[in-house]
Give the backbone structure.
Amino acid sequence: MCIRSIFLVGVLLMAFQHRLSAQEPDSVFLLSGIIYDDLFHPVPATHVINMNTHAGNVTDSLGIFRLPVHPFDTMLVRNIAFQDTLVPVMQIIEVKYIRIRKKIYPLQEVRIFKWGSTYNDFTEAIIEMPNQLTLGELLGLPNQDPNYIPFDMNEGALKSAAFLITSPVSYFYYNFSKREKSARKVYWINKNREKYERFDAIMSLENIAATTKLSGTELLDFLAFLYQRMVCDFKCSELQIYSEVHDLWDVYQGLQQE
C-alpha cells in the first residue's frame, strides 16, 4: 500500500473517531429531578437554570423540574431563601434529586432608645430620625415595582383576545398546560402569602373569641354563621375585614334576641 493511501486511511479514521466522541456530549435529553431542602421537604417556585444553554425551568408545588440538557452540562439552582447551588447533570442522573441549603442573613445590631414618657415624645423622636436606607439602596440596586407581574404569570394578559390573535400557539400552551397553570398557582400563593397570613390571623379562633367574648359551643355557632355570610377575603384590607366581622356580630346578636 502506498504512503498516500495509508495517510488517507489515517485521516478518515481520526475523523470518524472525533465524530463518535462528539456525539455523546451533543446528545440532548429531558432531565427530571426534585429540589429538596435540608429536611428533604420539596421546595416549590425554585429556578433551575442550565448554565451551558441558559435554558431554565421553575419547580412545581412538589419541587419537580424538567429541563432539556446535555450529559456534561451544569445546573444552577436559585431560590431567594436558599443558597445558590451548582450541580453537574451526571450527579442529578445518579440520585434524581438536588438538596439546597437555607440562606442565613446576618442581622444588624439591636439598640434600645428611650423615646420619652408620652406619645408626642415618641412621634417627635421618630420624625427627627434620618431616613434609613434599605439594603438595595445601599448597594445601588434599582427599585423594583411591587405591583410588577411577569407576563407568563398574568392571568388577564394570557387569557386576552389580543394574545390569542398575536400568538395563538402560545395562548393555548399557557392556558391549557398543566405545568404552566401549576407554576402560576405557586407564584400567586407566594405573592399573596402575607395577605393569607394576615386574613387567617384576623379570622382565627382566638381573635374571634377575644372580639365577641364567646366560648365553647356559642363561639363555634357564631363562626359557622360568620363563614357562611363573610364576603371579604384575603384581598380586603384589615379595616374592611374587621368592619364586616363586627357588622355580622351585631346581626347575629339581633337574631339571638328574637
Remarks:
- Confidence is low (pLDDT under 50) at residues 20-25.
- The longest helix spans residues 3-26.
- The radius of gyration is 29 Å.
- Residues 153-191 form one domain.
